[in-house]
Amino acid sequence: MPNPILEMSDISKRFPGVIALEHVNLDIYPNEVVALIGENGAGKSTLMKILGGVIQRDVGTIRLDGEQIEIHSPSEASRRRIEFIHQELSVLDNLDVAANIFLHREPTKGGWLKLIDRGRLYREADGLLAKLGLDVSSRTPLAKLSLAQQQLVEIARAISAGARILIMDEPTSSLTLTETRRLLDIVRDLKAHEVSIIYISHRLHEVEAIADRVVVLRDGRNVGALSRGEISHDRVVRMMVGRDLKDFFKSGNGNGSNSPDRDWFSVRNLHTLRYPNTAVSFSVGRGEVLGLSGLVGAGRSEVARAIFGIDATEAEVTLGGQNLQISAPRDAIRQGIYLVPEDRRLCGLIVDFNVRENISLPGMDRYSTAGLISSAKETAAARRACETINIKTPSPEMKAANLSGGNQQKVVLSKWLALSPKVLIFDEPTRGIDVGAKSEIYALIRKLADEGVSVIAISSEMEEVLGISDRIAVMHEGRISGILERPQFSEEAVMRLATGSTS
Amino acid sequence: MKKELGILILLIGLCVVVAAINPNFLLAINLQNLARQIGAFGIFSIGLGLVIITGGIELSVGSMMALLGVLMSMMLTEWKLGVIIAVLACAGIAMFLSFIHGLLITRVNMQPFIVTLCGLLFYRGLARFITKDETKGFGTVGGLDFLRFLANGNLFGIPMPFVLLIVISIVTWIVLHRSVYGRYLFATGRNPEAARYAGINTRWVITIAYVISGALTAISGIIFAFYTNSVSPANHGNAYELYGIAAAVLGGCSLRGGEGSVVGIIIGAALLQVLRNLVNLLGIPSSLDFAVMGAVILLGVMADQVLSERRNRRQTVLIRESARAGMRAPKCIRHGSFRRPRVRTAFGSGRLISEVD
What we know:
The complex is a heterodimer of chains A (503) and B (357).
Chain A: E1 6-15, E2 18-28, E3 33-37, H1 44-51, E4 59-64, E5 67-69, H2 74-79, E6 82-85, H3 97-101, H4 118-131, H5 147-160, E7 165-169, H6 177-192, E8 196-200, H7 204-210, E9 213-218, E10 221-227, H8 233-241, E11 265-270, E12 280-284, E13 289-294, H9 300-308, E14 316-319, E15 322-324, H10 329-334, E16 337-340, H11 344-348, H12 355-360, E17 368-369, E18 372-373, H13 375-388, H14 405-417, E19 423-427, H15 435-450, E20 454-458, H16 462-468, E21 471-476, E22 479-485, H17 491-498
Parallel strand pairs in A: 3-8, 3-9, 6-7, 7-8, 13-20, 13-21, 16-19, 19-20
Antiparallel strand pairs in A: 1-2, 1-4, 4-5, 9-10, 11-12, 11-14, 14-15, 17-18, 21-22
Helix pairs in contact in A: 8-17
Chain B: H1 2-21, H2 28-53, H3 61-78, H4 83-106, H5 112-130, E1 136-137, H6 145-152, E2 154-155, E3 158-159, H7 160-178, H8 180-190, H9 192-197, H10 202-228, E4 230-231, H11 240-250, H12 262-281, H13 289-324, H14 331-334, H15 350-354
């Protein structure tokens, strides 16, 4: 075997409160496609960000061609011919294709004006596009291209920059099947042209198709590697999830799964904006916690947004046998259907408002007479909320921005608890929250269910979903690929459905 | 309150300096005149302030006043309509046009700057067209005593426009700082997305702010029309929207939305009129009055920016200390940035408003 071109050894990285990577090793050999896989939050992206110069490691060494190097910034990575194609495309859609490919490396005519050599720019860009089989002119505005084509433009940019290591983070997450096949061909072609590729993907059949080697991370550590002949769907899944469930969910499951009316809250033929061609149907019983699992991008948040009336979509929603028309969040709120959104700081709270104002916002008619606010009523409600769910704040007048993530989340929850929820949808209820507050929120979810609230809990954390749910609906690419009952719960089962395995 | 305090001190300081240099500043006639101007300019500035709190802007104020002024004159002198009908018609037209602005902004998702810039051009042109570019007055029409009194009269020595300003400020203060609508307005202006997630009908909230601004513009417009007693369609109310915007910004409204107070806007409006007065009294060439205003606004807003950044830093330190005392410091502070995400500005809100329901 030849010497590796890249050796990342003993890499560790901590974020406040979280160990993202612990003693991780990754070697890349010439002309090799390495698939880097693991669950959400396993540390893949962190590792790649370190390689791409986006963030800095705490411990460990990086060697390129045997020489120890530091990568302080993305431009330094680029200078070392390491290129990163992000999951969220980072193209400028106000410019044309050629401008994107050569951004910051525009050929110039020289002279102090540094005029762009437009002839050369478009000639070279067109050449690259032809090489990648992208059949558009380099003068096309980027906005006119499909997502798949934009991605090829990014690849063209990476190649033109002379990449020898190309990091692709979930490159196929928004591509169709044919586009995916095309991309895989290009990856094979790049490999034949002296480029090594680090390929991050959740889609195991792609990995089986192109990877020379699979490196699996779990909880920020290496858990193993498989070489070409050993790669199989089941084996990879087992490596991804194989761990013990921690003793975290003492509250246990409630009586929800025995509830007589499992169709208390039902959603039929819901079409999300992201996947308009697939229909989602499910129902939640009274007092039941339905976990909604799946990989990032499977369309779970979109389902929540559609139910809550944020996105204008069609769905047949019934609550207690009654048909509901929900075209805006206020319609949902009127029916007692509430959402605790994923992005707390942008959607859940007004961070410049204080705790009192945040809590009272959706229920102003309770705290006002004739359109005038009674701050006494507001303060009383805020104090009650702080006590009942233990929000740690010196006073209800504290700005929400100054609270910790866990306490902010409790403020979001208090908004809805004061309005007697019938259906409560949690989107990543414990993201960015420390362990103590996490278990408080789990206990609260269980308590709500016991009081008869139907809970839908979207979560990317496997333990969380298995711990708090009475049933788990798993989504894959916009559809529900399966619903698991308690006895069937296992990480493997969830992961198999989430990766779209049909077996 | 801190924000208003700063500009209040600036206002008082300026008055003291002017009075010291030229004691005529304190003459009753000068103060009365000043108060009349503050009243007339303050009323529509409050409306503009509300619009700015939504994160929007209203540029058509001056043109709308010209249009209302000439219509008022034509309704009374040419079409012989009753005074009450004419006044109601003026208010109705202003509110209707502003309502259209609100709809274009919230339903068609156009940027407030563009919509109201078009209003600025359109209403001015319309005013000039329907009058054939002739200056309009009120002639010898009877029954206008009350309207003339509103513009030129005094109540116990206090000019009526100022009295009206006080009344209107009290009402809008209650609306803005004590009512549910006011809370929704701040929420929508600060974070339209979160406001929507809380079930607020943000489209309505924004549209109503424009309609209120239209109503207040009509009141100011009527005062100006009878104050000048003749309305030149090409010049009447020129650049008045800028006085309003300047007053609101000086008074602590952020063009990013979600920030501002009625008291601040009034102090801002007063400051601008004192500056105009100062140019006169101190013998500064009147051609410089805009330059003086520009300089003072720039310095005022700059000082406020510097001070508030210092305040933020101090707050950060405080929170660090409280963290040491056992409370957790917020994440944004631990990472060293205390800026809220800039969601939306008056000039670039098109896309985000499109997500507003």
